[in-house]
Amino acid sequence: MQGERSGELAGPDVWETCRELIPAGSVFAFPAEYRDALFPAVMFADMYPSRNGRPSVPPQVLAVTVVLQALHNLPDHDAALSLRCDLRWKAACGLGLLDPGFHPSLLTCFRRRLARSGDSARLFSKVKEVVATTGALAGKHRRALDSTVLDDAVATQDTVTQLVAAVRRVIREVPGAGEAAAAACSAHDYRDPGKPRIAWDDEEARAALVSALVNDALSLLGRLPAQPEGPAADALGLLALVAGQDVEPAAGSDGTDGRWRIARRTAPDRMVSVTDPDARHIHKNRARYQDGFKAHADFEPETGLFTAVALTRGSGPGSHDAAAAPACWPARKGR
Predict the structure, then answer these.
(1) Global pTM?
(2) Which of 3, 79, 304, 305 could cross-link 69 (Cys pair, CB 3.0–4.6 Å)?
(3) What is the count of structural domains for the chain?
């Protein structure tokens, strides 16, 4: 159930006691002054529909912590530690001097509730609304646009794993695919989510498996009719993508004889996991490789307040800041 703020604080009110030590207009003073307008309790009621169970940490405290965590790019453990030990964080969250904060796992639980709610962007939207109402950016016309990499939570999958997973998804989502797979697919028992059992140190066995899996995918696609928009169509499109992005005809073959091999190149805009098809392999620099997405943020340089955000794939068309700029600066198009 949703927790509520009690009238008694654990020790002196940090904001009332240490207000003069916290720079006016900073990212700490702003939520301390406008916290109730930013995040009223009713704003989170739909995220805590049940009246049963132990009360949670007040979502207003979690919301401010998540905002500060994002601004300072901290992991959950460090954000929780900052709330416990840093007077500025306590002031922003309306806590008392002796408040111990909460366990870092609560941030994960809060973000999960937020993501599953009907309005996952409510924190950002509310901050923008209060910024406009209070005039915090009045007269400040400079903006900066930058991006950062958001790591994906899924593991990168190799070609074999992606092919097996994509076929399994088609069997689950497409009507009649189970019968078609039973008739057309023989490279693997697709009821088993794991990798096929072969001698993986045998080059010829690996090559034969890749060919068999690709042919299974192509046969299955050829036996199933086109689907209207929805999960079935997405599953077929994903299988077609996986069956083509990492393979090429084997040496001396044009593909018509059913012989395929892992391609000697990486496909542009390669999908790295069928679990999250929008994740991409990102080269931040020559020595740093990550899998995930790009978050683009438009912010005012003096205050550090974000005025717009956009999320794109980590690589490929539309992933550069220049491509994301129109979404962040809709009023500046053409300037």
Answers:
(1) 0.55
(2) 79
(3) 3
